[in-house]
Amino acid sequence: MNLIVLYGVLFIALGAFMSGSFAIPFDKIKNWQWENYWIIYCLFGYIIVPGAICLLFVPNIMALTEQVPLHTLRSIFLLGVVYGTANITFGLSLRYLGFALGYALSLGLMMAIGTLVPPLINGRLAGMFEGNGGAILVAGVLISLVGIAISGYAGFLKSSQVETNKGVNKEFNIRKGIAVAVFNGIAGSSVALGLEQGIPVAEAAIANGADPLFQDSVVFLILYSGSFLTSLIWCLYLAVKNKSVKNFVQSRGHALWKNYIACALAGFLWFITFLFFGMGKSKMDDFSFVAWGILMSMTIVCATFWGLYRKEWKNVSKKTYLLMWIGLIILVLASFLIGISTNTN
């Protein structure tokens, strides 16, 4: 792995840390239902923060969009709409499978599909098989899936051991959970597909004077505008149905501004994930599609470390604790393999 690609992996690791951290501010939110904080978080994460990044680092944004075919912009936007549905239904996979199992299965499928399908469509994966890169990439993805499976199983054991006194999850439904997780995996990988569709936009950004590190910023803005539309429609529907619209303006004994600040911070951390991801991806040249697999694997690693810090793994058995560490080590190894696959052709 040369230094440039290593820098790319480090950028992506920073993004993964942000991704594993973005939901922590939600703990500070009080007296709001899910739809209240989710739409405010989406407003910042999907529109305000990416819009500000584009204004700061991408010259001549309007001229840039005029240089790209309309069908390309439309494809990116629609893929964002699809990703928005995945974000919404992701919660259902956690509901039916539990946090650990739902998180691992959904992200595992996102990782595999998002890493392999885009280069398979445009032919770049076939080019990697002319050398050893393709085999190493596929091996990295498969090993990552093993690591995700072990991490998910460890999380499942943890939940059953730590929450024994809280009662069994009555909503656990393996069939519904797997069905929703498969949908999440397919729909969630639309971000990787959107980035592939957005290559002409990124190239136009560079041609207009943008630093290559920020070349994907406009792509993200277009993509997540579609995601915001999906989230807005669903959250407004729930707000009307649950009569929670008033929560946006009524404090009910809690400083309302704290809820807005928490949502803004969550949105900032979430988009910074993809800002660093875009920076890392820009260092991988023709094999930038491998960045997605690294991000998904490292996100699970970072989320688990946050769980350790917050003592979520306290009082689990030695077997469960060992499985957790084995899963993490395998995921780090898989990320390394996916990274070096770009330099073995």
UniProtKB/TrEMBL annotation:
Keywords: Cell inner membrane, Cell membrane, Membrane, Sugar transport, Symport, Transmembrane, Transmembrane helix, Transport. GO terms for cellular component: membrane. Pfam families: RhaT. The chain crosses the membrane at residues 6-26, 38-63, 75-94, 101-121, 133-156, 177-195, 218-240, 260-277, 289-309, 321-340. The keyword Transmembrane helix applies. It comes from the Bacteria. GO terms for molecular function: rhamnose transmembrane transporter activity; symporter activity. This is L-rhamnose-proton symporter.
